[in-house]
Amino acid sequence: MAIHLNSSVSELPGIGTKAAKDLKNMNIRSVHELLLRVPYRYDDFSVTKPISEIRAGDTLTVHATIQSIDSRSASRNRKMKIIEAVISDESGELKVVWFNQEYLMHTLRPGMKVSLAGKVDGKFGLSLVNPVYEKFGSNIHTGRMVPVYSLSGSLTIKRLRGAIKSSLSCISEIVDWVPDEILLSENYPSLADAILGIHFPDTKKQLFSSIDRLKFDELFLHQLMFARVRNDREKQSCYSISINKESLRIFVNNLPFKLTGAQRQSVWDIISDMAEGQPMNRLLEGDVGSGKTVVAAMSASAVLDEGLCVLYLAPTEILASQQYEAMNKFITKHNTALLTRSMSKFQGESIKQDVLIEKIKSGEIISVVGTHKILREDLSGINLGMVVIDEQHRFGVEQRHALLQTKDKPAPHLLSMTATPIPRSLALTFYGDLELSVLDEMPKGRIPIGTAVVPESHILGMYDHICTEIENGRQVYVVCPLIDPSDNFGARSVVEISKEIKKSVLNKFKSEVLHGKLASKDKEKIITDFKNGKIDILISTTVIEVGVDVPNATVMVIVNAERFGLAQLHQLRGRVGRSVMQSYCYLLPGDVTENSMERLRVLESTNDGFEVAEKDLLLRGPGNIFGNAQSGLPDFKLATINDFDLMKNAKKHTEQILNIGIDQFPLVENKINITFEKIHLE
Ligand code: ADP
Ligand code: MG
Questions:
Q1: At a CB cut-off of 8 Å and minimum separation 6, what does 27 contact?
Q2: Which residues contact 19 (CB under 8 A, 6 or more apart)?
Q3: What's 110's domain CATH number?
Q4: Which end of the chain is more exposed for a tag (fewer CB within 10 A), N or C?
């Protein structure tokens, strides 16, 4: 049966029910989806040598005939089976050893011609250890740059690789959506060639140009979608928000603190933008604790004063309920409501969800903070003046688009916020459709957070210090990578740490465990109790990472700190140091390698988010800067923040296409439409 792009993977040779199920768990159902699965690395077995020229340390492929093959038990460990073979070609003989691969006795026989690939060991004479084998002439698993994919269930890499190889028979069905003009001018391979090249490249050059082509696709599509949103928005009318200096003055006078210069500048940027005749698209970038919320609240109050609606979108329920409180604290003239999947509140009280939604629709409530839940409601009838998106990288372009689509009404102004310190130039290229305001000044009186990497031997000293802090009325966070002890060996869990704390000198204090698997009600109660000082020690996973604000907390302990990216550690550390009190961050490494210690020490030396990001880049190299969730960039498979040139290319061609008119490129138009159709909420 001929294979097509939309054939099910189970039609591929070697893919039975079980393998098909494993693939389904990897979200691969069709041949097309299989072809789009990208290898995460390559084994370079492209060098082949005659046996006489092999040297210890070589990684290579040998084509040879099996002379003999035998199995025996290891002398020290009877359970360990050793398979030993001798292979030969015209130039000589070579020993081959496999450990615990008894089945090879049934597969490989003397006289067979095979290709073996692996590393040559020189310890006891030359030998190939645990090489990959295949029948001579196959050229799938040996003799080339060999792709390595992530797997699931009992699926083997050889089976997956074989299935992809078979899929290539229909690669010519892949239609290239990028216009020929662009491919020609950038010298990019066709999409089909790039997909072939990413799986089974003949040369490194072919591999790199294939990767570049596919990265370009991601970035180009991203830019086009941005452009589409921007275009749609430029065509729309909007409300101009009048600047009322008196109201702004009252707002500022009501604050319990003095705004920083950067905050004042940002508010001014925003307010002036919204007074213009075009919908605002602005990104507010500011390190953790720089005070983005009050900037949003002050701008929002100007919109509310016009009787227009403000929606404030937060990525988590915890954060939403906190912003709800902050808005109500900062904005005295209007009441803000809270709407999430499990919570709906107004004027400090719980309220029925449909009642709340009705009140929003009728215009009785005009200020709402919530999660994705808001996006699910049909609020097209309201007079939406402003949308605030907190931690905007947690929302896709599509979600933004959905929010900003107001059928016959003027378009809302958009304020996006992020704590990810992306350099200005990069942010402008990347979020090309956004104006930028940066909070590069911390509120006055903030004392840098004292940060220390704590070796095992100093833990008791740390406990003593924690006791003192709590006895002085302060509170403590303890963050662990995992929820249960079982998940992943090596890393500690909140359950485990909670037990340990209860056995230590800290047992006299009230501690609670917080993680994402708790019911929202329980989560909310724990956070509220912590906020109100009823809990001394909050033992948590990274759910507290974004935005939780308890100024009275002065100690942050991070367990298995080596497991987190530096920028993420910096974000976590930002949960403390939110008042004029001296705060502390203790980093407890699990496995201590030279490299991870060096990384953690960066946090000892600086409190500046931009500096942390830069050092992380230096130490960990490209593609690894923030760890996934914190990257601040959309969820690309291949492109990273370092693909600056490709990004510029994508931007250039986007502008070109817009000038000619997207409708001149039906395939491009289709691709964007398809991507938009897949709007995917929560
Ligand atoms: P982030 O930028 O991380 O979202 P927040 O808006 O949560 O920061 O602000 C952190 C804390 O600092 C809050 O408790 C907020 O009330 C307080 N804050 C904001 N601006 C100032 C200021 N100018 N002076 C003192 N405290 C401030
Ligand atoms: Mg915030």
A1: 33
A2: 9, 155, 159, 163
A3: 2.40.50.140
A4: N
Look up residue 189 and give its DSSP letter.
P
Q: 457-472: per-residue pLDDT in tens?
A: 898 999 999 999 999 9
Ligand 1: centre distance to CA 263 (Å): 10
Rounded mean pLDDT, 666-675: 84
Entry pTM:
0.71
Q: Give how many domains the chain has, as a whole number.
A: 4
The domain containing residue 124 runs over which residues?
47-143
Is the domain of 134 the same as that of 23?
no
| Mutation test residue for ligand 1: of 251, 293, 318, 390, the one with most atoms within 8 Å of CB | 293
Average pLDDT score over the chain: 88
**Amino acid in position 566:** L
Question: Could you tell me if 127 and 51 lie in one domain?
Answer: yes
Same domain, 481 and 555: yes
Domain with residue 344: its CATH number is: 3.40.50.300
Residues 410 and 500 in one domain: no
- Same domain? For 392 and 473 the reply is no
Residue to probe by mutation, ligand 1, list 329, 438, 549, most atoms within 8 Å of CB: 549
CA of 292 to the centre of ligand 1 (A): 7
User: Tens digit of pLDDT for each residue in 203-226?
Assistant: 999 999 999 999 999 999 988 887
Let me know if residue 187 belongs to a domain: no
231 vs 369, which has greater pLDDT? 369
- Name which of 133, 142, 213, 152 is nearest 177 in CA terms: 213
Ligand 1 pocket list (CB less than 6 A): 257-260, 263, 286, 288-294, 419, 443, 547, 549, 551, 578
